[in-house]
């Protein structure tokens, strides 16, 4: 969408500040951790921004892109002791793999769920009752579908992982701290959530006329 530059800068600043402060408030990181992460994020943007289109095109068109996206995260863990960072990392990688796979399936099936590049940038339309109602309906339906997906996958992956690795699952919280349970639960569950976000939910919107 085409919007004023100042509006985008203010929005980015507010969101960045909210995320950074929340990490300090929850006690997960120190101020120096947040500063280092912020500077590291800037470095990543500088390096990868020029090749974003190339990476995106690879994920969409390369035949084995879903397998590559799904398997890279599996070999990213070397921490054997429990840590919140380990679960967060598995969750982020799972979401990324799911989104990449969902985008690839959309491309393979020829589903044009996004506007064509020729029509970009889009201009902001006036806010009407119909537009607002559709936005709220899309939000509610999308959140419900994703929450149901998460709950279903959580119910399936934790007992299955416990059974495969012979881990008692009476105390689910304790079982989830084991790497053999936490990593499959986080990675698979949020991978399916990311896939639903990119493929299932948009298809549902298209089917019921909310695209």
UniProtKB/TrEMBL annotation:
Species classification: Eukaryota, Metazoa, Chordata, Craniata, Vertebrata
One GO term of the biological process aspect: sphingosine metabolic process
InterPro entries associated with the record: PAP2/HPO, PAP2/HPO_sf
Superkingdom of source: Eukaryota
Pfam families on file: PAP2
Domain Phosphatidic acid phosphatase type 2/haloperoxidase: 9-52
GO cellular component: endoplasmic reticulum membrane
Organism: Semnornis frantzii
Listed GO MF terms: sphingosine-1-phosphate phosphatase activity
Keywords from the UniProt entry: Membrane, Transmembrane, Transmembrane helix
Protein name: SGPP1 phosphatase
Bilayer-crossing regions: 6-25, 32-52, 124-148, 187-208
